[in-house]
Design goal:
By secondary structure, the protein is of the alpha+beta class. Helix content is 49%, strand content 21%. A 6-stranded antiparallel β-sheet has the order 3-2-1-6-5-4, sandwiched between helices. It has a 5-stranded antiparallel β-sheet with strand order 8-7-11-10-9, covered by helices on one side. The chain has a 4-stranded antiparallel β-sheet with strand order 13-14-12-15, with helices on both faces. Strand 7 (204-208) and strand 8 (214-216) form a beta hairpin.
Length: 470
Amino acid sequence: MNRKSISRLAFAIVILCFCLSTFVSLWSLRIMAQQNLEAMGETITGRIYDAISGELSEPITVARTMASDTFLIDALKRESRFSEGKAEKMIADYLSGIKDGLDCEAAFVVSEASRHYYSYAGVNKRMDLENSARDQWYVDFVSSGAPYALDVDRDEVSQDVWTVFVDARIADENGALLGVCGVGAHMTGTRALFLRLEKDYRVKINLVDAEGLIHVDTDESRLETDRLEGLTYSKNEDYTFQDLGGGKAVVTKYLDKLDWYLVVQSDSSSARSQIINMLLLNVVMCVAVLVIMILAMHIIANRTRALHAASFTDQSTGLLNRRAFEEEKARLSMSSLREDFAYVTADVNGLKTVNDNLGHAAGDELIQGAAECLRGCLGRYGDIYRIGGDEFAAMLYLSPEQLENAVKALDEATARWSGKLVPELSISCGYATSREFPSENIAELGRISDERMYAAKEAHYRRTGKARRI
């Protein structure tokens, strides 16, 4: 028997042993579950817990990441320095990126300073904390002192659809409150998930708080009105089994990330069919996993490099994206900057006017034209990033003479540029160098560069006499 045959035989034995051990384990589970309703209930609840924890904990991760995002923190700290329209567009663009890029149904920011409620569509309203019952959630959350919390409410931006909101506290480096941000997951998706799980396992599923108030149910009429009373809710890590009599039982499990309780109500008469279904499902899944693992190992090896590169690239311009920008900033913040380091900020002038008058296709052409000019004039000295809709940044290594020549070349390139839909292009730039500010870190150089860019933009509109549009 040759080596190839031995390898095949060994692989077959491994698969057979795996299948047999899985089958024996599941068969034993079936027997024990039939004998012990409590064990069966905990097993089913564990599977449901695994299925929904990722569904509802993902918005928490997104909201807490937003709350620590230096871009959002800086935007709220400097909100009063911008015109209302500029602040609105900047935050709305950020929220639109969160909503679309992370597939959230809602994304919002409430400024403590201005009390503006920002959504991806702009300023939705100004919070009335003294008179509006709909805004009482903000007061309650801020006064709680919690870093984040979940709240079920109707989404005013999406026609009052029932939504699970994750509220996260935004604070500056001294702990002072800047506002509250978060995302929302419409209950329609969670309801569909619960309906499927209830059908699969023939149980009733709820998420309730410590008082038994129902926050998630397949019947929307019960949300935040009905209570599951007479049950014991424990915050320990174990499952809590409660026999209600008459063949009915309840298993509860505390979800620490949500600060809610998963409640699964079952009927022992359906136990046999549930276990059989679980057995068949696991056998099918084991076979499928074995096949998929063999195929996936080959595919993953070939695609990993391409996917890694794509995750750091802006698809519209081919430049590096904001994710790559933030990672590079984080890396540079860990050590001293080189003497020849330069931080450049660039912003396209008049993009909104082009979008309004000529359409978004023309706006896209303008952004792509700006990217071409930036790449052609600055790309040889370092990396260029698209960090927002019409906002760009570059981290370069060059001499003062090279920087001066590169900026001059950029002005000349934009002056020569002409597109098919847009006749002209203008870019406002600002920059700050380590040679000019040797004691400053990357964040401070970025701030100085931004201020100079905005000053250049104001000068552009004064010089051209054009009305400024955000």
